[in-house]
């Protein structure tokens, strides 16, 4: 989350330059939710179903 925020601050008018940071955050959240059986809570992560949908929609 911190690296994403730093990137967005650095590239204020070019958020697409932070796509890798955003992907890393979602992958981290996915791992977190897998480890907690989707019961974990985090202020940095969207709800588990949002993470799953985003990763599905943005698969490489």
Order of SSEs: HHH
Radius of gyration over C-alpha positions, nearest whole angstrom: 12 Å
Structural class: mainly alpha
Mean pLDDT: 91
Separation of the first and last Cα atoms: 21 Å
Largest sheet: none
Instruction: Please estimate the helix content.
Output: 55-70%
- Number of DSSP E strands: 0
Strand content: under 5%
Low-confidence stretches: none
Subcellular location: Mitochondrion intermembrane space
Family: Belongs to the CMC4 family.
Protein name: Cx9C motif-containing protein 4, mitochondrial
Keywords: Disulfide bond, Mitochondrion
Describe this structure in words.
This is Cx9C motif-containing protein 4, mitochondrial. Belongs to the CMC4 family. InterPro entries: CMC4, Cys_alpha_HP_mot_SF. One of its GO terms (cellular component) is mitochondrial intermembrane space. The structure is a single chain. This protein has 60 residues and is mostly helical. The chain has one domain (2-57). 60% of the residues lie in helices and 0% in strands. α2 (19-35) crosses α3. It starts with a helix and ends with a helix. The model has no long low-confidence stretch (mean pLDDT 91).
Summarize this, please?
By secondary structure, the chain is mainly alpha-helical.
Which helices and strands, and how do they pair?
Blueprint: H1 2-10, H2 19-35, H3 48-57
Helix pairs in contact: 2-3
């Amino acid at each position: 989350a911190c690296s994403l925020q730093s990137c967005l601050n650095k590239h204020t008018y070019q958020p697409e330059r932070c796509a890798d940071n955003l992907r890393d955050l979602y992958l981290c959240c996915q791992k977190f939710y897998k480890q907690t059986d989707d019961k974990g809570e985090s202020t940095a992560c969207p709800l588990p179903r949002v993470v799953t949908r985003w990763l599905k929609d943005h698969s490489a």
